[in-house]
Design a protein that fits this description.
four-stranded antiparallel sheet, 8 helices, 30% helix, alpha+beta, 13% strand
Length: 217
């Protein structure tokens, strides 16, 4: 019983209602047009998570066109393959009724993982942080010197922002981008704020969120 309860607590499936109501397609006699029509909410989540506006979405088992309908609404191109003429006709009529969303509402928040990776050494190479500057923890108690190769040094220990951040805390891992801070205009800020400036200088960002350069102390 304990193992069963553990499995329930670790569920990672998605919960969607069955396809019903006005969304459920029916033939002229009121019967379901397709026995396993998928809910549009399911395809909406899948397409938002795995495609971008303008991408081509292929569904080789098109059925009544749920994939095509959602793709059209979300500004994606679509290609469906269906051998049953009745299903194909229902899909064509269904998709023709879909009103695409405006491009402005299709803009989604960009995740950190999707952003171009910027090593800390690049921050030093670009002169955003110069060798010799001092970084600290959030409270200013731990002080580290930035080396020319993008490593940090604290009391004879030298390593990456992540490894050294973990060592000084006695931990096995550390996100150095949020642990180490620089000082600008009397305010400590995490060095993570400098990555957007690096992306701007490298032509990888539209507009910088941080526009100041930090000189060596």
């Amino acid at each position: 019983m304990k193992a069963l309860n553990d499995d329930i607590q670790m569920r990672s499936d998605w919960l969607f209602p069955i396809c019903s109501g006005p969304e459920r397609l029916r033939d002229g006699e009121g019967y379901k047009a397709h026995p396993t029509q998928k809910p549009e909410a399911l395809l909406n989540r899948l397409l938002l998570a795995s495609t971008n506006p303008g991408d081509l979405v292929l569904d080789p088992f098109f059925g009544t066109g749920t994939t095509g309908a959602v793709a059209r609404r979300l500004g994606r191109r679509w290609l469906g393959i269906e051998r049953d003429r009745a299903y194909a006709d229902a899909a064509e009529a269904r998709i023709a009724r879909v009103r695409p969303l405006s491009p402005s509402v299709l803009e989604t928040a960009r995740s950190k993982r999707a952003e171009p990776r910027i090593p800390f050494g690049t921050i030093v190479e670009l002169g955003i942080l110069e060798p010799g500057i001092t970084l600290t923890d959030e409270r200013g108690r731990v002080r580290a010197e930035v080396k020319a190769d993008g490593t940090l040094s604290v009391a004879g220990q030298q390593g990456s922002i992540h490894r050294l951040g973990a060592q000084v805390q006695g931990k096995t891992a550390c996100n150095g981008w949020t642990y180490w801070h620089f000082e600008a205009e009397g305010v400590r800020k995490p060095i993570d704020a400098l990555r957007e400036e690096a992306r701007r200088q490298l032509g990888l960002a539209v507009a910088p969120q941080f526009a100041g350069l930090v000189a060596a102390e």
